[in-house]
Write a structure and sequence with these properties.
alpha/beta, globular, 32% helix, Nucleotidyltransferase, domain 5, 240 residues, six-stranded mixed β-sheet
């Protein structure tokens, strides 16, 4: 598996998203109507659209990105890992900075992106939010018109499936199976919106996102039967 790929050519990433506004009551009436229609797909019993608004962050049409963390293997024997995060309340600004970095990174013709469940969530979410914010999608992220072998997007969930599409394996479960440190030792994804809107602690969210990026890298290295990244060789260059 992955025998022709060099770890140093891979940019590992993860995103954190929240509903576009803090509550359904202040959502634009037009989008209240759209959320009413969208949420019918999963509401149960007598649940209202307002009661399930906390789930809006997982949909690019109703949410926004507050953090993108990326990681890159900088050295070998042993591996060293450098992590950087783009974060804040201004989604367009963080997406612009991320896009600039991604364009520079992808000048390497062998460059690849890797995320867990990236094909279903991270990659399309980023691309959609870039379109909404009038940002040109970097070529490495844009699959339009590309042949399968031209796509530069890896997905640890997709790799773990080995063609089996009957179930979903979370990042937390996969780290447990492979005896890799869990990134969910402080918070998990279901808590992000509350921490962002109620506690205003985005730095805590950034730390959580960076742990996810490290976990994705550790998983892929395990898939490649390569040594793990040791704790003393991990550096975050984000000022938090």
């Amino acid at each position: 598996m992955l025998v022709n790929i060099k770890p140093e050519d891979i940019l590992f990433l993860d995103i954190e998203t929240v509903p576009a506004v803090s509550s359904y009551s202040i959502l634009d009436p037009i989008f209240q109507d759209h959320w009413e229609k969208k949420s019918k797909q999963f509401r149960e019993g007598e649940q209202t659209a307002a009661e399930v608004y906390d789930r809006a962050g997982i949909y690019a049409e109703f949410g926004k990105i507050i953090c993108i963390s990326v990681g890159l293997i900088k050295e070998k024997n042993p591996f060293a890992f450098r992590i950087k995060s783009f974060y804040g309340d201004d989604e367009k600004a963080l997406l612009s900075e991320f896009s600039d970095m991604l364009s520079k990174f992808s000048k390497n013709k062998e460059a690849l992106l890797c995320a867990h469940n990236g094909k279903e969530f991270d990659y399309p979410y980023i691309a959609r939010r870039m379109i909404i914010n009038r940002i040109i999608i970097p070529d490495i992220l844009d699959n339009a018109g590309k042949k399968p072998w031209e796509v530069k997007l890896l997905d640890t969930l997709d790799l773990w499936k080995f063609g089996d599409y009957k179930s979903y394996t979370s990042l937390d479960l996969l780290t447990a199976i492979l005896n890799i440190a869990s990134p969910k030792d402080d918070i998990d994804g279901s808590m992000v919106a509350r921490i962002y809107y109620d506690e205003h602690d985005i730095k805590r969210i950034v730390r959580y996102c960076e742990k996810d990026v490290l976990a994705v890298a550790q998983i892929l290295l395990r898939f490649m039967n390569l040594p793990k990244i040791e704790e003393g060789k991990i550096e975050s260059v984000t000022l938090i």
